[in-house]
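Our consortium's second objective concerns turning raw sequence data into structural hypotheses that experimental partners can test. To show how far this objective has progressed, the report includes one record in full. It was chosen at random from the queue rather than selected for favorable results. The single chain below, 354 residues long, was entered without modification.
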Amino acid sequence: MSLDKYGWDAFFAESFAPLARDGYAAGRVFLQHNKIYMLYAEAGELAAEVAGKMEYEASGPDDFPAVGDWVAIRTRKDERKATIHEILPRRSKFSRKVAGSRTDEQIVAANVDTLFLVTGLDNDFNLRRIERYLLMASESGARAVVVLNKADVAEDVEAKVREVRAIASDAPVLLMSAKESEGVEQLLPYTGAGQTVSLIGSSGVGKSTIINKLLGTEKQKVSEVRASDERGKHTTTHRELLLLPTGGLIIDTPGMRELQLLVREHGLRDTFEDIEALMSRCYFSDCGHKTEPDCAVREALATGELDAERYSNYQKMQAEMDALAAKQARGLAALKKEKMKKIHQELKKHKKRY
């Protein structure tokens, strides 16, 4: 089984070369269920688990394989099984903070070339949510493409498209109606041989319908959307890497009830480059954009050059990032303190022994 059809290229081959010399084989994770990973490998499809050493040394969820990852394995061909010993460097990764109060990173999909950011033009339409998706796509390292679905049921379509293009920077904005099979062909140029794409978006926006159109079969279950609020059920319950007739691959992801930021400063700059440009024009380099004179941001807000809701969303996401960074710093300090405590306890035991 050739690995090229699953996205293997020179980038991964270069990092894998030392491992190949040590006798490891390569595989790509196409499905995960609890601690069992299904892989595409030269030996065929294999069920795999991580090695004990790898599990012991892991410091968080991001140290374990995710769907889309390339991994170094030892195979047991007779059993159709393998052991994962190492994750190859990721070319891109789409991450979010795990649900709840913890600050761990959850990798939604790895080694994605293009992220389709899907939103519905019905009641799901929300510019501020699209900004969050654009921010996380920028951080991931993948190309972002905004997909506006359900054009057949939308009102003021052209106005909504203009609004999205105004915030999407260089990201293409595609209009379609997957249910009516209109506009889906616009996605095909991103799904060529060896290219990996992924769809993200809230439940009910039509991701499963789009995937079925790209696959040419009804593989993904599609649920009806509630008439009361035009929201759908979480049809997709797990992530899976699927082969497309075009030669590309697609990772489906469950709808996300919460999309908590796990990004750094450059992602915010890339997504809100218009606001960053305004800030650079302020008279004071440390301008707080509140009462300072010659503030380009406040002037742009007053004239309407800068949308107030967009700026408010920027401030909100900046505050989220700052709060998360502070929480992570406290967590690292507590972890370091706990490690030092254990070291001192071991030293005391050693002194008593000798």
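The partners drew two points from this record. The two ends are 59 Å apart (CA to CA). The first strand starts at residue 25 and ends at 33. Both points have been shared with the crystallography group to help prioritize constructs.
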